[in-house]
Specification:
Strand content: 25-35%
Structural class: alpha+beta
Shape: elongated
Order of helices and strands: EHEEEEEEEHHHE
Radius of gyration: 25 Å
Helix content: 40-55%
Number of domains: 2
Number of helices: 4
Distance between the termini: 7 Å
Largest sheet: 7 strands, antiparallel
Number of strands: 9
């Protein structure tokens, strides 16, 4: 059998999408949430079946994206015969990057050293104390952010389920023998 995945047909099912990632995916928005659907990869064809893998992302801004990997199997008539998936929820929340924390720490160190001559070393102690408080506050924010993100959602994670279901239908309607 000669199976065909029609990329043009698939893309037409997402009228307001944009191609991204060097043409390997499309992105679109529903309400206030963004989603990315990659074109099929790992397409394996035999004489009577075809299997393809598709990744979908719920794009979550500063937090880690949610990911679904679909594996779709088609029979000799290009009918969907089975679907399996893995789902990985993003969960790291909005984080203060370690590079920013280190940069601020260095600024405190420099400020303390520059003021040490004028303050007989007191500015170094103040800078060190301020740096410690800053580091603790950043760690607390990063830890709490992870917890808050797990408890909250703007609806985008819940709508990710229909996004996956609709993508399966759109993918299947783009496959032919």
């Amino acid at each position: 059998m000669n199976y065909t995945f029609n990329k043009t047909t698939f893309r037409s099912f997402y009228p307001d999408c944009e191609e991204t990632n060097d043409g390997t995916a499309i992105e679109y928005k529903v309400e206030d949430s963004n989603y990315r659907v990659y074109y099929p990869t790992n397409v394996v064809k035999t004489s009577t079946t075809m299997q393809m893998t598709v990744q979908l992302d719920h794009i979550r801004g500063g937090a880690t994206d949610d990911h679904v990997i679909l594996v779709l199997n088609y029979d000799d008539k290009a009918h969907l015969s089975s679907v399996s998936y893995t789902w990985e929820a993003g969960n790291d929340g909005y984080q203060i990057p370690e590079t920013l924390i280190k940069a601020v720490d260095i600024a405190f160190d420099v400020a303390g050293l520059l003021g040490a001559f004028e303050t007989a070393g007191i500015s170094e102690e103040v800078a060190e104390g301020t740096k410690e408080v800053f580091d603790v506050c950043c760690k607390a924010y990063n830890d709490i952010s992870k917890i808050v993100v797990k408890w909250s959602d703007n609806g985008g994670r819940m709508y990710f389920i229909p996004v996956v279901c609709h993508s399966i239908i759109r993918l299947t309607n783009s496959v032919s023998v």
